[in-house]
Amino acid sequence: MLNAYARTLTDRIVVPVARGLVRIGITPNWLTFVGLLLTLSGVGVVLAGRPVAGATVMAAGLVLDAFDGAVARLRGTAGAFGSFYDSVTDRVADAAVFGMLLWLVAPDPVGFTVAMVALVTSQLTPYVRAKAESLGWEATVGLLERAERLVIVLIGLWLDVIDLALWVLAIGGTITVTQRLVAVWRQAGRPGARRGARP
Question: 59-68 pLDDT, tens per residue?
Fold first, then answer.
């Protein structure tokens, strides 16, 4: 949702910074890698009992991740491998973040269940889009994308309202997956819609 409605605003911030990064020789893959390391480090700090500090480190990783695409475009190196690499590292980071959340609420059966729903929908959201695009359809709609999910996690850690954050993630994630499935279903029902083989 942020990508759809705040792109103009974020570009005013991201593009000038990205130009500066290009000038000093920073590569997009380096940004992606360091962003992942910061996210994993932040998860470790949270699990060590310092949620505010850990969330701050994770936020730094999220900020770096926001620049890799812009740097790639400005350097003229945007390509299939960079997109693949960025997507894979995003899934690794998401798995670590949601694994951390599951650990934090593990003693509470309700909280653990809500966290599982949040985890599953966070993985389904990009999968539905990728599968749809592989069949020639679009599935970019949705209430919560990756940036929104991570911001909600960070707020939950900073304000010590992780239970509330998990409910927002679970409900918002379920709505997002449903929105994307409906979008694909509508496209699939159009005359001449592409038909793909079942895996």
Answer: 999 988 888 8
Catalytic residue among 65, 68, 86, 90: 90
The pLDDT tens digits for 79-93 are 788 888 888 999 999
Tokens describing residue 183:
């979008």
Q: What is the 3-state secondary structure (H, E, C) of 46-81?
A: HHCCCHHHHHHHHHHHHHHHCCHHHHHHHHCCCCHH
Catalytic annotation present for 65: no
Residues recorded for the chain: 199
Average pLDDT of the chain is: 88
Own/partner long-range contacts of 98-107 (Cβ < 8 Å, ≥24 apart): 98/122, 99/43, 100/43, 100/46, 100/47, 101/153, 101/162, 101/166, 103/47, 104/46, 104/162, 105/162, 105/163, 105/166
